[in-house]
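Researcher: I've got a protein sequence and the SMILES for S-adenosylmethionine. Could you write out the 3D structure of the bound complex as structure tokens? I'd like something to compare against our soaking experiments later this week.
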Amino acid sequence: MMNYEGFKEQVLILTGIDLSAYKENQMKRRIDALIRKHLCSGYDEYLHVLKKDRKVLEDFVAYLTINVTEFFRNPSQWDILEKHIFPLLLEKKRTLKIWSAACSTGDEPYSLAMVLSKIVPLNQIQILATDIDKEVLAKAQEGFYTNRNMTNMPKTFRDLYIKEENGGYRISDQIKKCITFKQHNLLKDPYPIGMDLIVCRNVLIYFTEEAKKEIYHKFNEALVDEGILFVGSTEQIIMCQDYGFEPNKIFFYQKSKSKK
Ligand SMILES: C[S@@+](CC[C@H](N)C(=O)[O-])C[C@H]1O[C@@H](n2cnc3c(N)ncnc32)[C@H](O)[C@@H]1O
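Model: Sure. Here is the predicted complex with S-adenosylmethionine in place.
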């Protein structure tokens, strides 16, 4: 009978997702629940279903990677971004390079574009938005949402950038144009460079300490000097100096200036 180690190897081959980098107890519990849901006897039988049925495989990836998100998640942090972080970054240049890493269905990069549009013209906004999961990226590109995602959306942005359509909400093309969506696996793909702001929230909590450390180093390399990393509300970086960061505001870390 296949054990969890064997299952992880097969999942890596099948999906490119390395489950060893995700916290084991939590991941195993989630997978066991899925195995029960599909009425399978264990890893072997479930793997067989995953190989046979594309839809089950897609659901598996979506479930594992936990895609929950919303516009302006943790609103007070978006306030700090608008009032403190963007002005700080814009002191030096007019066009910022921004990366929303693990963006899920796009709520986060669209929120970024909306906030920044209060300060700079839309045609100067360029945001790279990435995720490992192709399904969520397709939804992000479509830009169509239910009310659940919109709870924290300020009314001014709703009026400016959202259209109600068939009981849902559609993002306007002018905001969509600010974002480039791409598939990217934080655990194995090369990172972009020259970023002024990296937003990576509510995904590192699922990774092992080792995987997190490597990612912090890579984020640091991906940022320009004094660039900012914005993390989720349970993801404060202990000993951020070890990775070349200084704490700025809470949940915001600034890359230390390189010594020349
Ligand atoms: C909980 S959502 C967070 C979305 C958004 N950043 C937020 O805070 O609302 C986590 C996202 O991380 C993505 N993810 C999981 N593992 C990943 C990996 N190895 N590389 C890139 N994205 C990953 C998932 O597909 C999912 O969309």
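Model: Residues 65-69, 73, 102-104, 108, 131-133, 136, 184-187, 201-203, 232 surround S-adenosylmethionine (CB under 6 Å). The first strand starts at residue 97 and ends at 101.
Researcher: Great, I'll pass this along to the crystallography team.
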